[in-house]
Amino acid sequence: MIDNIIHAAFLMTTPILLAALGGLVNRVAGLVNIGLDSMMLAGALVGLMVASQTGSWPAALVAAALVGGLLGLLMSLTVTRLQANEIIVGLGFNIAVAGLVRFFLKSWYGTSGTLSLPDVAMLPRIHIPVVADIPVLGAIFSDHDPLTWAAWLLVPATAWFLARTRLGLRLRAAGAAPQAARALGLNPLNLRDASTVFAGAMSGLAGAYLCIGVVGIFNEGITAGRGFLALAAFYFGRNRPWPTALGALLFGLFDAIQIRLQGRGLPAELVQTLPYVMVIVILTLVAITLKRARNKGA
């Protein structure tokens, strides 16, 4: 049972982690992306459609990343060029994309709510015989798909990128001191646009994962607010990749637990709130800890 919960936790962590890393880079560059959920939803639908039409999961991931990146670019241009409020724009994108998806399903497929397509290419599982039969280790390292491995490899890659590369340092400068960045000849708005495209692409991959990595179908509520869990994860991590990954894993664990509790006959409406209740609890504890640390420092 413990092995199953651990394996499910890593499964549920992947979409949160992907979107959280994208949102983290976006936040470092100076833009808080509230619209991650809309990019996940669009990526989920496009990923399923392409996986069904082509029979290729890599093509589905590429298509999902592209549509997510496009939405990210549109959102960023609205904020950086039209000077719109990033919070309002993000919320607007969430509502608009949800409505467009609903309209598309009804007009194109003649259905509403759930879309099931034939011959969907699912993400393959990588079986590692050396650890597969070892308790706990097998659940952590074996029978995961390539996108899960990629998500976790992106954690140290993101940390290195932001701390060690010229572009990473420029992104940090654009977010922390845009005036100083301009004085150095950088264009903070272009850097923010690029970071939002990256966040959109990562969220698109996260959405595609939910469809072709977990359930094999699309549902209007498939993201279930995971874009907001990703937002909470990088706030929990204070814009640092490793603590962000830890936050994503915690939220993924609670997501896996609530799914298992539903199978035990507990009310689904109540149990489904568990990950979000834990977000409030964890962020509150983090805020209290930081406040006490500041008081001691003073």
TrEMBL record:
Its main location: membrane. It is a multi-pass membrane protein. GO terms for cellular component: plasma membrane. Coiled coil: none annotated. Keywords: Cell membrane, Membrane, Transmembrane, Transmembrane helix. One of its GO terms (molecular function) is transmembrane transporter activity. The keyword Transmembrane applies. Pfam families: BPD_transp_2. It is found in: Cell membrane. The chain crosses the membrane at residues 6-24, 31-51, 57-75, 87-105, 146-163, 196-215, 273-290. This is ABC transporter permease. It comes from Kaistia nematophila.
